[in-house]
Design a protein that fits this description.
By secondary structure, this protein is an alpha+beta fold. It has one domain (2-226). The chain has helices at residues 2-61, 97-100, 181-185, 217-226; strands at 77-78, 81-82, 90-94, 113-117, 136-139, 147-158, 192-194, 211-216. Strands 3, 4, 5, 6, 7 and 8 form a 6-stranded mixed β-sheet that branches. A two-stranded antiparallel sheet has the order 1-2.
Length: 231
């Protein structure tokens, strides 16, 4: 009877452990999802503060800051223009967080990528209401067959949880470039960017977890007029 009772107790223990494992799994998965969603929300809030700071900088000085290209948190300027400009006249790099007095990273500890059209970051002559350049485009997919806007003057990007293409704020390490076309579009230093719904690795449209916000030209003009900087 003793051996049978012990055997039955071990079986009960095994069943109890199995049930406990299932219960823990059902709790931990939603918890992980909640943590990730909180990180996304915090990063988006940080980026919105950065966009406000960009507008404040423009209203105070008459131009947007250039990008940080050497990872010291300060904008890189040579004379009256951004130190490094692409063929489209765009300054690509990271957000100059020290220049703006902001947090140095997103929720995953990576720098926020920043692109600004050089015409709006030029010291002299300042841009005017008549400034009409090949502005930045934010599209629904790589190739920009359909765009969300074609009048952005600056774009801010968090490379999300996977961090592909991002720069670590603590070590300065630049992570591996993305392989999915839409994420790659956000790292290739041209005038086109992609913002869309996140998809996991293995999805037919490719992995995507970048977070984007942008500054439209006419919002910048509106704030500059209100501040007496334009026309």
């Amino acid at each position: 009877m003793t051996r049978r009772q012990l055997g039955f107790s071990f079986l009960e223990l095994a069943v109890a452990m199995f049930i406990l494992t299932l219960l823990l799994g059902s709790i931990l998965v939603p918890l992980a999802t909640q943590v990730e969603q909180r990180q996304i929300s915090e990063s988006l809030r940080t980026m919105e503060q950065a966009r406000d700071a960009l507008l404040g900088h423009a209203m105070a000085f008459g131009y947007l800051p250039c990008s940080d290209t050497d990872n010291d948190g300060l904008e890189n300027v040579t004379g009256n223009v951004c130190s490094s400009l692409s063929g489209d006249g765009i300054s690509h790099g990271n957000l100059p967080w020290r220049t703006l007095g902001l947090a140095s990273a997103d929720s995953w500890g990576n720098r926020i990528r920043y692109a600004v059209h050089g015409d709006y970051a030029r010291r002299t002559p300042f841009f005017t209401l008549g400034t009409n350049t090949s502005n930045l485009r934010v599209c629904e997919a790589a190739g920009c067959a359909s765009d969300l806007t074609s009048t952005a003057v600056a774009v801010l990007i968090s490379h999300g949880k996977n961090g592909y293409g991002a720069t670590n704020s603590a070590s300065g390490t630049v992570y591996a470039a993305p392989t999915a076309a839409d994420e790659l579009e956000n790292t290739d230093a041209d005038r086109d960017f992609v913002s869309r719904v996140a998809t996991a690795s293995g999805a037919a449209v490719g992995e995507f977890d970048d977070i984007l916000i942008w500054l439209p030209r006419y919002i910048l003009f509106n704030r500059m007029v209100a501040a007496g900087r334009l026309p």
